[in-house]
Amino acid sequence: MLHEPVSASTQALTFSQAIQVALRDEMQRDPRVILIGEGVRHSGPYRGLVEEFGHDRVLEAPIAEQGFTCAGIGAALMGLRPVVAIGRGDFLYPAMDSIVNEAAKYRYICGGGNFRVPMVIKVHSTGMGGGAGTQHAQSVEATFMHVPGLKIAIPSTPTDALGLFRAAVRDDNPVLFFEHREIKRDSAREDVPLEPAFAVPFGKAAVRRSGTDVTLVSYGYMAHKCFAAAEELATRGMSAEVIDLRTVLPWDRDAVVNSVRRTGRLVVVTEDCRRAGVGAEIAATVGELAFPSLKAPIQRVTYPDMPVPGTLYAESLFLIQVDDILNAVDRLV
Amino acid sequence: MVRVRTFDLKLTELGEKGEPLIHIPTLGQEAPAVAACATLNSDDVIMPYHRGYAWAIGKGMEPGRVLAELLGRTTGYCKGQSGANLADWDLGVLGRSGIQGAHLQIAAGVGLALRTEGRGRVCLAFFGDGASNTGAFHEGLNLAALWNSAVVYICENNGHQGAVPWTEIMRVETTAERAPAYGIPGVTIDGNDVVKIFRTVSQAIERARGGAGPTIISCRTHLWAERHFQPDGAIGHAWPPEQLAEWKKDCPIARLSVRLLDAGLMTEAEAEAVQAEAEAEMDEAIRFAFASPHPTREQLVEDVYAP
Prior knowledge:
The complex is a heterodimer of chains A (333) and B (307). Chain A has 333 residues and is an alpha/beta fold. In chain A, 36% of the residues lie in helices and 21% in strands. Chain A has a seven-stranded mixed β-sheet with strand order 3-2-4-5-7-6-12, sandwiched between helices. A five-stranded mixed β-sheet of chain A has the order 9-11-10-13-14, sandwiched between helices. In chain A, strand 6 (151-153), helix 7 and strand 7 (175-180) form a beta-alpha-beta unit. Chain B has a five-stranded parallel β-sheet with strand order 1-2-3-7-6. Chain A binds chain B through residues 56, 59, 61-62, 64, 66-80, 82, 97-98, 101-102, 106-118, 148-149, 151, 172-173, and chain B through 45, 76-79, 81-82, 85, 87, 89, 94-95, 97-99, 102-103, 105-114, 116-117, 135-136, 138-140, 142-143, 146-147, 302-307.
């Protein structure tokens, strides 16, 4: 592990490091936190944890996402706080029943009360850019955004990664925590607050840049693309507000609606497919709540409704670029 | 067992009258869950499955509150929002999933938590032979075995998946034969013999309490009424009369009664009193349930998320 607890209140960390620090800190802070997943005793990001916390808190799992996700539910019911590590967003589909039928609904069908499923499903890699293959590069958050009972966090910065991960572990509900492969490759460091009380609340968007002419809404890796687009727009004399949702379930409706009421223009950028995607939900909500404020039709920048091609070259033809966002803004003015 | 059967028959009557409830009779296979639950301490837990309410009564649930739940009343165990997916935290009834086999995996995690907490508590997970063909069975059993989870898996083996005989869905007659594949003990026993079940489950529980991991116990039994009542109607399958007559000769309640009478541990009068008390209890349960109020829309949205 790279991190030793330090007395300093901040530490310069990359996105990947921030998540590792958050996991280890939570395991040190709370003996109820356990880790379950494939390779957690053997692979890079989890190295050292089994030596520090032992075999009963760092549980190696067979390739059985459906099974060990359900096992996480059982451990959570009995008072533990499992972090269930899953390699790719795509692998949530083998665990679909465990997440949608069981984790999301367990408290409800048991009548609430003491029945709680405080579990984090930590998705080690989501999204495109690595030529990982059709079933290794999908963005799956919209599928799960549809499910009552879940929460979904998709951080874009080291500070948010640490703060949202802590909030996820401390939450009494099942949380999907997605780590975008492109942000994880980013070696940029940020001074991340380490005091134990720090956490990023769910449902509170971050305004990455204030603006008056157009609102750009996104999350995760696309928040970086939106920020870059806003910088380019500024050179053209256009003021864009960049909203990073940070959590898509719940998502910060007030932040988006209030921004659109001021700017009158909205572009939603997601790496997920277009149809019934996160952008569709946001666009519909803004249509319901802020229609009179809109000066132009809402624009969605998304991945097309097709599978992700399985080779690096073919995939590269469909990656969302800053120009795609700029073109969408051009259609509004 | 008498209470379970009496309740079962009363629920069947209500189902036949078209009352809006889910009831999947367990007639004839009352013994495994009742005898298995009798081995438990009050702080042990169970993960039941869809068939009947032997596990519910076995673990101490009140029939009136069970029926109230089935009918969607606020006095039900889950405030009328769950129906047949019964749970009760205080009694250690950890919820009854509607998805076949899913709970066999959840039980692996429950048993992991129970083993590592070190208080010697255990979980019983009930299932039917049909559910043993799910991938969930395999994933759950493998994990429970791997982690030495404190869980005992009890198959109510009636030789059928619904109305389909086991020969058409699997190549081994009992799920206990699959135990060696997970490196755990598996045993097939007479599932209509309460004493045998009690002793076998007790041994498996002691093993699990000691941290040695799970066991599969397949209890051979017979299901007399292959029916499924739902608010929108009933489905079912009638067994051939000669088959049913044969099974009824193996009734677990009759067998225990004979044993107790022969041993002088119970008189005919006491046996009749047990039946009469059960009748009265279930009639009162029905009165209680139907007199209870329904929840409001506001109440029914409260538990989507934990605060």
